[in-house]
Structure formats: structure tokens, C-alpha cells
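Technical note accompanying the year-one report. For the benefit of new consortium partners, we illustrate the data format agreed upon in the data management plan: each record pairs a sequence with a C-alpha cell string. No post-processing was applied to the example shown here.
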Amino acid sequence: MNLRGKQKRFLRSKAQRFRSKFSVGKNGLTQAWVDQLDGAMNNYELIKINLQQSADVTPEEVKDFIESHTAIQVVQIIGHVLVLFKESDDEDKRNISLQVKDI
């Protein structure tokens, strides 16, 4: 699903009160980390990740890595925090994606 501007704005407003669920640290970006992230996205659909100070990567590098290895879309980057969205594979957990489709 390619997101339009209104849909991204809606997701940003939903994620505003969320806390970061994942972080990128000194180990950097690995395939195992991306697999865990992808599994979590099936449960939550919308999450935040945080880049720790010890991370050797920039937020733009994290964005490119995530989008090239998964179907996850980066909705927003603010400082060292990224907001991610992916429609859940489990139909019972698709509450946010159903709201996004109606916009």
C-alpha cells in the first residue's frame, strides 16, 4: 500500500503518543534485527524505533535499509526516531490499516 499525504498525516498523529518499541544500537542493522521488526509489525502495524547514541548509522540509512529489505514504510523521521507502518498479515489485527484505507 503506497501512502498518500493524508494517510501519512493520520499515522503520524496516531503515533504521536506511542513509545519506541525497537532501537538501533552499536550492533547496527542486521537481518535478524529486521526479521524481529517485521514480526512485530504484524502485531502492531504502527510503531516507533529509536536510534541510540552508540549507533553508527544515520536515520536515513536505517530508512533505506528497512524499506529495501521489507515491505515496511517509513512514515516520519524526527531526529533519531522513525515512525514505521506495515499492514498486518493477520486479518484480525488490521485495525489501523482499515482506518488508513478509509482516508
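Partners are asked to follow this layout when depositing records. Helices lie at 5-15, 31-44, 59-69, 95-102.
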